[in-house]
């Protein structure tokens, strides 16, 4: 570890500010760790990160994933989607749920038949967010946007990942907001968003490859379980 890392790990021992004390007290309450035990975990974390960084440098040609693996992972983890939202009628609105759903089914039929999706969004869409995101919403498998500022409803997220790139979901997707006609689009490879997504995915794959590398050590470790010590432990709930 560097001197700065050592100092950072040991800072908890001499911390006087209330935020640091509160943070450690919460950790102690949850885990029973002493301050020294906490320091040792932080030190090991620094060492692990340092080892990983060194391993990546020395094995750059080995653990860097190929383009096909990155592309596959991007499609698994991210989706760029546009949608036409037909909102459910609000209280007092002079239109029935049945009429609204029928309209959504009409738009879906047009989208599936190959009509220009952007034109459908412009003509029928009732989501004002599509005006500020004309390229579509870039979301993760959990439904959060790339910047982490918003999260899509579960039905919308599921419907977005249910189809391949450049495909229209042939099913109406219903949520609390209404009916969604969804098209999954291709992420522009020249955009800043694609660069962010690509970096995230490459790091994700390399981390998985590094974990597999560490697993080779686990097979060589002899584990001895001391039942006499375990049986003396008392767990409080």
Biggest beta sheet summary: 5 strands, antiparallel
Number of strands: 5
- Bin the strand percentage: 5-15%
In N-to-C order, the SSE pattern is HHHHHEHHHEHEEEHH
Portion of residues within helices? 55-70%
**Mean of residue pLDDT values:** 90
Q: What distance separates the N and C termini?
A: 37 Å
The secondary-structure class comes to alpha+beta
The coarse overall form would be: elongated
Residue ranges: pLDDT <50 for 5 or more in a row? none
List the helices and strands and how they pair.
Blueprint: H1 3-14, H2 18-31, H3 35-58, H4 60-63, H5 67-77, E1 78-87, H6 97-112, H7 117-124, H8 129-132, E2 137-140, H9 154-161, E3 167-168, E4 173-175, E5 178-185, H10 192-218, H11 227-230
Antiparallel strand pairs: 1-2, 1-5, 3-5, 4-5
Keywords:
alpha+beta; single chain; 237 residues; 5-stranded antiparallel beta sheet; 11 helices; 5 strands
How is this structure best described in words?
Strands 1, 2, 3, 4 and 5 form a five-stranded antiparallel sheet that branches. The protein has helices spanning 3-14, 18-31, 35-58, 60-63, 67-77, 97-112, 117-124, 129-132, 154-161, 192-218, 227-230; strands spanning 78-87, 137-140, 167-168, 173-175, 178-185. With 237 residues, it is α+β, with helices and mostly antiparallel strands. 56% of the residues lie in helices and 11% in strands. A hairpin with a 2-residue loop joins strand 4 and strand 5. Helix 5 packs across helix 10. 17% of the residues are buried. The chain is elongated. The chain contains eleven helices and five strands.
């Amino acid at each position: 570890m560097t001197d700065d890392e050592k100092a950072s790990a040991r800072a908890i021992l001499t911390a006087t500010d209330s935020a640091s004390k509160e943070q450690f007290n919460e950790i102690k309450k949850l885990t029973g760790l002493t301050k020294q035990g906490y320091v040792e975990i932080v030190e090991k974390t620094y060492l692990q990160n340092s080892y990983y960084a060194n391993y990546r440098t020395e094995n750059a040609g080995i653990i860097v994933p190929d383009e096909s693996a990155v592309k596959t992972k991007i499609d698994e983890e991210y989706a760029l989607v546009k949608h036409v939202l037909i909102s459910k009628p609000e209280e007092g609105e002079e239109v029935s749920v049945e009429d609204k759903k029928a309209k959504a089914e009409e738009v879906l039929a047009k989208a599936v038949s190959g009509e220009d999706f952007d034109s459908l969004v412009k003509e029928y869409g009732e989501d004002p967010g599509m005006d500020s995101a004309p390229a579509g919403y870039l979301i993760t498998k959990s439904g959060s946007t790339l910047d982490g500022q918003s999260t899509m409803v579960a039905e919308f997220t599921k419907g977005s990942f249910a189809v391949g790139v450049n495909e229209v979901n042939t099913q109406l997707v219903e949520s609390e907001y209404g009916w969604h006609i969804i098209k999954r689009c291709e992420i522009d490879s020249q955009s800043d968003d694609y660069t962010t997504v690509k970096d995230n995915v490459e790091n994700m794959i390399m981390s998985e490859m590094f974990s597999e590398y560490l697993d080779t050590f686990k097979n060589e470790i002899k584990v001895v379980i001391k039942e006499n010590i375990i049986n003396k432990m008392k767990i409080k709930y």
